From TrEMBL:
Protein name per Swiss-Prot or TrEMBL: 6-phosphogluconolactonase
CDD domains: 6PGL
Organism: Azotobacter vinelandii (strain DJ / ATCC BAA-1303)
Keyword Ion transport belongs to the record: no
Protein family (similarity comment): Belongs to the glucosamine/galactosamine-6-phosphate isomerase family. 6-phosphogluconolactonase subfamily.
Amino acid sequence: MSIDSVAWPAELAFHELADAETLATAMAQRVARALQAAIEARGRATLVVSGGRSPAAFFECLAEQPLEWERLTVVPADERWVPPGHPDSNAGLVRRHLLRGRAVQARFVGLYQPADSHEAAARLADAALAGLSLPIDVLVLGMGEDGHTASLFPGSPNLDAALDPACPRRCLPMLAPGEPRRRLTLTLPLLASARSTLLQLQGDAKLATLRATLAGEDARQMPIRAFLHSPLEIYWCR
Ligand SMILES: O=C(O)[C@H](O)[C@@H](O)[C@H](O)[C@H](O)COP(=O)(O)O
């Protein structure tokens, strides 16, 4: 399948990059421009990033960007309900690959806190996010081959609530199909408030998933559909 074989909606900015390194650099430069513009306009900026295997190289390129990091707040789009020292922790991923060098000066608002229950943990994360000024400035999403994004998983309890544009919560507990199953996710109102949204994808399987999203509109089946509209920018390489 080639990029040109898919009739992408004209409003989606689709960038095909030569390889993963070129993609990471292009995304880092784009995100840095948007964050610096936000800082110049409002004195501060908020960046929400996804976890998983894809973003490490992008994080490392972004960490090298000449930004006023002390004016930045970084928030995970979702979290596995594991401590930051756990190998699956998104907070750990961000701290290892993004909050390094000068970028260590950024403020980080993590979602994980120990709690008596998954729901209690989500309420603690909700409280931690209460002070976050909206709209967020930059959102960077990934996508699973099932069409999930953040931890908005098809079939998860709370998915309808999390996708509700009027959801009163900023963070909800979710269940992933694979381990670690217990997740915490930012909800649609918070995620969709972003002034700029980038989607990072790699490989033909995810391109096929993205193509499949165009065949329907129900975000409960493929939650990434809730973001497939302007101002989304898609960055893809094989
Ligand atoms: O915590 C997570 O895993 C992410 O937030 C999740 O939404 C991720 O972006 C996709 O699952 C893609 O993950 P990969 O980059 O590992 O394919």
